[in-house]
Amino acid sequence: MNLRPALAALLLAAGAASAQAVTIGAQLPHVTSQTLSLEASAPLQANLSSFLDLAKFNPTLGTLTSVLVELHGVFDSTVKMENKSSSGSTLGATVNGTLSLGLPTGGALLALASANTSFAAARYDGTTDYAGASGTIRMLTGSADSSSSFHAPADLALFTGTDNLHLAITGQGSASFSGASNRSTRVATTTGATVRVTYSYDLPVITTPTAAVPEPGTWALMAAGLGMVGLLASRRRSR
Amino acid sequence: MALAMNWPRSSRPAWPHHQEPSLGITVKTVAALALATLLAAPQAQAALMTPMALPSATQQSLAGASLPAADTDWTNTLQVQQFNSSLGTLNSVSITLSGRVHSEFSATNNTNGPAAFNNQLYGSLQGLLPGGSTLELLFEGADDRTLDGGASYAGVVVERDRSKQVTFTSGLSPFIGNGSFAIDLMALAWSTIDGPSDYDMDISTWSSASVDVVYDYTAATQNVPEPGALALVGLALAAVALTRRRAA
């Protein structure tokens, strides 16, 4: 008899489909996290002191859960040294760069970078040209990264809105020289920065009436299955 | 150079003209002479006291040499006159090394705001003495000031003087002779500058050095004045005796 296996298979299929539909329905209310990163840069410049504008998190995108602010600072220094002593000397130069990014929550994010060089200078060659055996010109480059993240609702509110974050960025440097006490030294420094703000947020929750939906389908499937069984039986009987 | 001592000079002028009274001398003259002698005696005695009072009394002879200012770093040698052994017996040698380090700073602040400039100066002057010992002077100075953005300064001076003494009581042979002994000198100057991210800074430094030597010795000639002093007393006594005899 063919009827029984076919019926059993149909019932099994209908049951499986039903179970699957319920499972999918249970997952739907779960939220989805997304991130959005924005970047702004200040090019290398002397006496860096300006503002970087970055869009705040638009609340229509979802619910802001955290903000990560990353600062990447760079400095380039040109260091010139000439030993004017009557004997050779090792001349040293150190440049320190401090980049400060004002945060909307108050306070500042700092990135500290340092670079140094030394030059084994011969006795003064008679010309202050920062060249030859007694003089040199060196390029010093430094970079540093720092970051800060925010989770507290009060902090997140400061990053939320439809206007811009207006973040103050300043570069401050210091340079020091050492060596025999007859010398000429020069230093010139440019500083630049890149700021990246990453917003992590949850998408708006879409609620769906999950429990009611599968049932008509299940019953319809059952009805279709029984209908098929009935059709087969009637066809067999009519033969 | 040996210091000229007091006694030969002060004892000399009182006597040359009166030392040999003529035979035809008057009583008054002799009496006056005796009086003068007695009056002069304490003075002479005082003058003679230094070399004569104690047989072990010491005297000092000075020597020295110096080097003019020269840009650091430098090395040089000072020649100092030795102690002439004909003066007496050398007891000790005191050597004083004195030095000066002088730095001048000039700077321009090339940033657009005020900035602190901190200059720190270190120097040393080292003398290598006969016998291998060293005398070292260390100098340290600082100048801290703030310059407005774009402003300059020039001729800011940091200067330091130092001296140090060492005394030798043994191993004196290198200091004795008719020539000189050598002190090898080495002058170093080192500095650090702290400033903003953009500036010009020039530093020039010189240092000078001098050496003063005191030879402390026991004079070989200390018994020479005695006959003179005795003669003086004898003369005074004779003059008194003569006066009395003539008066009697």
Overall 3D shape of chain B:
elongated
Strand content of chain B: over 45%
User: What helical percentage do the residues of chain B reach?
Assistant: 10-25%
Strand content of chain A: over 45%
How confident overall, as mean pLDDT of chain B?
Answer: 80
Count of helix runs of chain A: 3
Q: Distance N terminus to C terminus of chain A?
A: 16 Å
Could you state the order of secondary-structure elements of chain B as H and E? HHEEEEEEEEH
The poorly predicted ranges of chain A are 7-28
Mean pLDDT of chain A comes to 85
Radius of gyration over C-alpha positions of chain A, nearest whole angstrom: 36 Å
Order of helices and strands of chain A: HEEEEEEHEEH
Structural class of chain A: alpha+beta
Strand order of the largest sheet of chain A: 1-8-3-6
Helix content of chain A: 10-25%
Number of helices of chain B: 3
How many E-type strands of chain A?
8
What value does the Rg of chain B take, in angstroms? 31 Å
Instruction: Name the overall outline of chain A.
Output: elongated
Low confidence ranges of chain B: 1-54
- State the major sheet of chain B: 4 strands, antiparallel
What's this, in brief?
The complex is a heterodimer of chains A (about 240) and B (about 250). In chain A, about 25% of the residues lie in helices and about 50% in strands.
Task: Please specify the SSE layout and strand pairing.
The complex is a heterodimer of chains A (239) and B (248).
Chain A: H1 3-27, E1 33-45, E2 49-55, E3 63-83, E4 89-102, E5 108-121, E6 135-150, H2 153-158, E7 164-180, E8 183-202, H3 214-238
Antiparallel strand pairs in A: 1-8, 2-7, 3-6, 3-8, 4-5, 4-7
Chain B: H1 6-11, H2 27-52, E1 58-71, E2 74-81, E3 88-109, E4 115-128, E5 134-147, E6 152-168, E7 180-196, E8 199-219, H3 225-247
Antiparallel strand pairs in B: 1-8, 2-7, 3-6, 3-8, 4-5, 4-7
Helix pairs in contact in B: 2-3
